[in-house]
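Following up on my earlier thread - several people asked me to post the actual chain instead of describing it. Fair enough. Here it is, all 321 residues.
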Amino acid sequence: MLSRHYLRVKTLQAVYSFFIGGETDLSKGRQELFDAIEGISELMMYQISALLEVRDFAENKLEENKKKLRPSEADLDPNRKFIDNPVIKILRENETIQNRIQSLKINWSEFQEQFRKIYFAMVEWKDYKEYLDSPADSFEDHKIFVAKLFKKHIAFDGNLRAYYEELNLHWGEDSITSGLNLNNWIKSLDENNETTHIPGEVFNSNALPGNDDDRDFVKELFDKCIMNSEEYDGMIQKKISNWEIDRINQIDMLILKLGLTEILEFPRIPVKASMNEYIELAKEYGTPKSNAFVNGVLDKLVAELQEAGKIKKSGRGLKGS
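Reply from S.P.:
Thanks for posting it. Predicted structure:
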């Protein structure tokens, strides 16, 4: 369910925490990594709960309008298409989802002002007005609208992201990945297939034959990077003769070590794919010059390792890659 890029990011964070914290227990560090990744499933429940809260806010608003001193005809007989949306109803009535939301004790009582803002932005939204006015009433039509609504007004809302970050330091950033995954999940809902009515497992265990599943990928990447850290220090030092190891940005060093780990230990991942991934991580988490530094050092290391025959790739189209 999660992208390999996201798994690499979480592994980088875990390796950084392992070394910065002076940790020596590999199994403990690995378990903390698994917990951090699996924690995104809790974040997903918060985001689903936020969607349901918008729906409830809308219903409460309709009820308030009926109690106006001089209610209009529209107030007395409102359009309930959004309130009665069958996709949202599935989420509301799904026992697994509701049990998880309740177990997390999610409470939006102090966040109503933000939901008021989301609601009023929604009712002025062109797609919302078209949805209410459209005679189309298939499950697919309702699903398309909910996916649009979630992506536009909930998944990436800045105030919600700030709130998630208060709950968990990494959740502000993770909410982007979580939001995209939930948006895709909403699009995949099948009215008649209950197995689609809850988000899939965080770790994808349905890897292609011969490939590592996500949990194995993360475990091997983390473990081998930690275990071979000193060896990688020596390899990297030879390629940066003008610099002392301790003068190199620590994030850059860890990105290089993870890159080496993947290139040497994962025979089914092309070298170029691994290099591109870690250059991208350097852009995201390093200094402005980190991507050029990581690119240059990895290029030199790969050339030397290939010449020595130490990079072993297997699988169709991978030999020599």
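The chain has a mean pLDDT of 92. That should answer part of your original question.
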